[in-house]
Amino acid sequence: MVILTAPFAAPNLVMWLSQSGHAVLDNDYARIQNEGLADMGYATLNLVDEAEAVERLNAGERLYTSAENALEWVEQHVDNPQLTAGIRACKDKEVFRRALESVGSPLFYKTFDVAELGDVDPTALPLPVVLKPVVGFCSVGVYVIKDAADWADAVAQIQQTTEQWTSLYPASVVGTGRFIVEQMIGGQEFALDMYYDGQGRARILNLFQHDFSSPEDTKDRLYWTSCDLLRTHGNEFARWLDQANQALGLRDFCVHVELRRDDDGQIVPIEFNPLRFAGMGGTDLAWYGYGFITVEEYLTGDQGITADSDVDDFLQTMGIPLDSPYTYSMSVIELPAGRGLDVGFDWDGFYGNITDVLATYQFEPKVHGALGFVFKRSTADTLQELDWLRDADLTPYVVDL
Fold first, then answer.
1. CA–CA separation, 316 and 321 (whole Å)
2. pLDDT single digits (tens) 5-32
3. First-to-last C-alpha distance (Å) of the chain
4. Collapsing DSSP states into helix, strand and coil, what is residue 313?
5. Which secondary-structure segment (H or E) carries 202?
6. Is residue 393 within 8 Å of residue 33, measured between CB atoms?
7. Which end of the chain is more exposed for a tag (fewer CB within 10 A), N or C?
8. pTM, to two decimals
């Protein structure tokens, strides 16, 4: 079962649904996709009404959502305690932290109502910390706090941008009424598209390293993957995910996971994003890099790297050359700080700095809150272009409308 909702459904996902006939909830956004498919001469989606969708999900059918905007519908309509409890365990960061404490992931955290933030003494916190919404999405409303000045700046920005967040995302995606302060997690950050199968076993389909330009950076500018990265961390992360599920109890449930791993091998979760993979179509890096659609594997099979599987067997099963020399990357082209939403972007000028672009999803800032998504392939000779993607000031390419 799939629910398509605004703000974005990736073209590859829509085309796979068109070709496969997999069930899709009949809603306004899905009907818009159907109109586009019909205009291009493709088969339309297999839309099912709310009653059938509820019956399927109550019976335990696997669910994928194109965006977290769909979670509100699920919570209002579906009577499947395992599904709705899983959403809450992942989405509410306070509930999530409390659950993961029982499996050895201790981390200082404290929650505040938004009205309390101005009265907090940040020097009483174990600085540095991260401040973010208890219910959040991507890097919306995430601030690194090193001192009292950072705290004051963050509170001021929250007050200024709350209206913008609420215009782009429902409360089930980004909640602006309650914030959580978390101890700063050290180590390298990674992101995974994975699911728990019917036995609750972790199966990883996508594994990215998330690189930043500085310790204070919270942007989503550079994620990359390679066969060697899968070999290095696939089994290790699957073992940790199995351990985490002892507390979460998820079954037939997909998650986009963000975590950090330090040099000693300690793994600490950042967040679990329920019933989706990498947002805004980011999971399509598996398609552009390796030729398979993650959503199809989750909904129709039992592929994925497990705690004890042979990673090379997974690569061969998915048709990925074991000696692939490529690094594949994805980058969210975010709005520079201080720019409004009524802008365009000089894509031709931007492309002049990088080579071997595989695909671009161009967004409308007023709808999506970002400018676009770029997928790229690199060799050893062009890896420096990834540094440019990570660090570049994109202001010269932003065009006022």
1. 7
2. 998 999 999 999 999 999 999 999 999 9
3. 40
4. helix
5. strand 202-210
6. no
7. C
8. 0.87
